[in-house]
């Protein structure tokens, strides 16, 4: 196995005249109607699992990760090998698997991504301003000196 790699998982239909293939997980013959193909090998749907949490990777999504001879789901790959950082608002650690908001070079917990003066939370499409590395709502920004830059949350 490759040391550090992201792979796709595809579902393959077994043709009726096709000789059953061997499963890379259990070494048994695959006689099911469908099988998974990943890492250039074939798998029973129940045999392609994350080495940490045992979730079935054919159901979780179409991507798996390999590192140190482990087959992992995205969450466990990031938990074990991902880069963590600190929230620009609260300075607490952000786990590598957690969803975040970004504004320029700053990274925020979802709960921390709010106006840092009035604590108003933003909705999709709301305009926010980044001034001296502080996130501000439009009202608080306009009440101050306008030398920050406006950004809009993606819709």
Automatic annotation (TrEMBL):
CDD domains the record matches: LIM1_LMO1_LMO3, LIM2_LMO1_LMO3
One cellular-component annotation, GO: nucleus
MF GO annotations: DNA-binding transcription factor binding; metal ion binding; transcription coactivator activity
Coiled coil: none
Keyword Metal-binding belongs to the record: yes
InterPro entries (UniProt xref): LMO_RBTN_TF, Znf_LIM
Species in which this protein is naturally found: Kryptolebias marmoratus (Mangrove killifish)
A biological process term (GO) from this entry: positive regulation of transcription by RNA polymerase II
Highest taxon of the lineage: Eukaryota
Statement: the UniProt record of this protein carries the keyword Coiled coil: no
Name of the protein in question: LIM domain only 1
UniProt keyword annotations, A-Z: LIM domain, Metal-binding, Repeat, Zinc
Domain LIM zinc-binding: 21-83, 85-147
């Amino acid at each position: 196995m490759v040391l550090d790699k992201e792979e796709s998982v595809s579902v393959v239909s077994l043709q009726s005249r096709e000789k059953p293939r061997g499963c890379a997980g259990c070494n048994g013959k695959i006689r099911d109607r469908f099988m998974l193909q990943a890492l250039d090998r074939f798998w029973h749907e129940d045999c392609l699992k994350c080495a940490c949490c045992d979730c079935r990777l054919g159901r979780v999504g179409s991507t798996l990760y390999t590192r140190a001879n482990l087959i992992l789901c995205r969450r466990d790959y990031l938990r074990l090998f991902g880069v963590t950082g600190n929230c620009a608002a609260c300075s607490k650690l952000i786990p590598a698997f957690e969803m975040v908001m970004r504004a320029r070079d700053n990274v925020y917990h979802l709960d921390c991504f709010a106006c840092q003066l009035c604590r108003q939370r933003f909705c999709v499409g709301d305009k926010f301003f980044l001034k001296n590395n502080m996130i501000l709502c439009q009202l608080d920004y306009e009440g101050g000196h306008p030398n920050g830059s406006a950004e809009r949350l993606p819709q």
